[in-house]
Design brief:
The chain is an all-alpha fold. It is built from 22 helices and two strands. The protein is globular and about 75 Å long. Belongs to the TrkH potassium transport family.
Length: about 475
């Protein structure tokens, strides 16, 4: 466990770095009590991080199983440390503080607080947690620290499976440079659209991170038309892979890169076609205008979670459409959540390959291709097996969570509301049918926290941690 302790210790420095970056907010808004709270957070995070890291600093090489455990454990501990400012500075109950922190770092956006009543430094802390969590704490440290053995395994453990440049460190730095640039553009566009600077700053950060936290109690329900239209662009940008953004910047014509590949074509088809269908459905039911229909669809597809309408008043049909697209999620390699559209493309391809195998003529050579790339039978079988296993695990967790959640809510709560909020939490979306609030039971909050955590890590690292706790040793993880 020495490599795990060393890796977790390194990552637990992130809340301390966030605290250092947040102290200027206290100085700007003259919230010196908040500065003391942040200093406590910095000290606590640094001490725990060093206690874990220093004895294991000469640990052995990090293998895939170690990276999985580092990801699973560190995300939980970072969320616990991120809850300290809420609990001490905001006087919030520890469970609610932990819920808010985990929802922030996982990029979910479900909230049990009234953000407008929080001091500025806590509003900033919520937004910063989502902004950091949008790319991931591991990718953050990989971009800062010198190259180490096991960096590639850590990169893959945080649900990233595509490198932009040959080295992991260079890839992480490119991701952060694109991310920071887009964040500045998002903040500027919201400010030009009429948002006050403080609101534009927070919503620009959480929008490009597809997180969904806002500093208003009604999310985007009272936002102007211009702000909503600008937010559509920001959410869409956050849901597109960093690899695609990098190619769009480097390759001309840039539009070609945005539509190249089966996943990108599926994304734009679902985004535009689904928005039209939802608008027509809502118009027929007379429950929402075209702007809110399009806004909610884009928010669900991109897994952002900004809300421009009270979904508790929507009929079952439109809610089911949102629920299905939240399950699918955004594109792989983006800040979005869900199962990812790439995996649904692979599921479709696997069905097609199977049918071709059964229907091909004798002596006919079967060519297996994906996005123009020829695949061997072994490679195709490996991809199919991986995506099928993850999909089954994802659906199983969702089903079990829905069953348990029905016992955590009051009698009379509609089943569609339970399913909607569970899928929203596991896909790290943040849209709510009204189920998630301060009155939700402690068991309900803990359950949603568990599925947010599992969904952000895409199940596998959590299963590795569970196997360790059950079997008492680290299981081997391949591929």
């Amino acid at each position: 466990m020495r490599p795990v302790a060393r890796g977790v210790g390194l990552l637990l420095h992130v809340p301390a770095l966030m605290g250092v970056a947040s102290i200027p907010i206290c100085l700007v808004f003259d919230e010196m009590a908040g500065a003391r709270v942040l200093l406590i957070t910095i000290g606590l995070s640094t001490v725990i991080a060093q206690v874990l890291y220093w004895p294991a600093r000469r640990g052995t090489q990090v293998f895939r199983r170690h990276a999985m455990l580092i990801a699973a454990i560190s995300w939980l501990l970072i969320a616990c440390l991120g809850a300290v400012p809420f609990a001490i500075g905001g006087g919030i109950k520890w469970l609610d503080a932990a819920f808010e922190s985990l929802s922030g770092f996982t990029g979910t956006g479900l909230s049990v607080l009234e953000p407008s009543t929080l001091p500025h430094y806590l509003q900033w802390w919520r937004s910063l947690s989502q902004w950091i969590g949008g790319v991931g704490v591991i990718v953050l440290l990989l971009s800062i620290l010198p190259p180490r053995r096991g960096a590639l395994e850590l990169y893959y453990s945080e649900t990233r499976d595509q490198k932009i440049l040959p080295s992991v460190r260079a890839t992480a730095r490119v991701i952060w440079s694109v991310y920071c640039s887009y964040t500045l553009v998002a903040v500027g566009l919201l400010w030009l659209a009429g948002e006050p600077l403080w609101r534009a700053l927070n919503h620009g950060m959480t929008g490009i991170a597809t997180g969904g936290f806002t500093i208003t109690d009604d999310s985007f329900q009272s936002a102007s038309l211009a702000v909503k239209l600008v937010s559509l662009l920001i959410m869409t940008a956050g849901a597109i892979s960093f690899f695609v953004h990098y190619r769009a910047i480097q390759v001309k014509p840039r539009a070609k890169a945005l539509f190249a590949g089966a996943e990108q074509r599926l994304f734009w088809t679902v985004l535009c076609g689904g928005a039209l269908l939802l608008t027509l459905d809502n118009h027929a039911l007379g429950q929402s205008g075209w702007v809110d229909s399009v806004f909610q669809w884009v928010s669900a597809v991109t897994t952002t979670g900004f809300q421009s309408a009270a979904l508790s008043n929507w009929h079952t049909g439109p809610l089911l459409m949102l629920c299905l697209v939240m399950l699918v999620g955004a594109t792989a390699g983006s800040t979005g959540g869900g199962l990812k559209m790439l995996r649904f493309v692979l599921l479709y391809k696997s069905v097609r390959w199977s049918l071709q195998t059964f229907t091909r003529r004798p002596h006919e050579v079967l060519r297996l291709t994906f996005d123009g790339q020829a695949l061997t039978r072994e490679d195709a079988a490996s991809r199919t097996r991986a995506v099928t296993t993850l999909s089954i695990a994802w659906m199983t967790v969702s089903l079990l969570a829905v069953i348990i959640m029905t016992h955590c809510v009051a009698d009379g709560v509609p089943l569609q509301a339970v399913v909607f909020d569970v899928v929203s939490a596991q896909s790290n979306v943040g849209l709510s049918s009204g189920l998630v609030d301060t009155d939700l039971s402690a068991s309900g909050k803990l359950l949603l926290m568990a599925v947010m955590w599992a969904g952000r890590l895409e199940i596998v690292p959590v299963l590795v941690l569970v196997a360790l706790l059950v079997r008492g040793r680290t299981p081997s993880v391949s591929g």
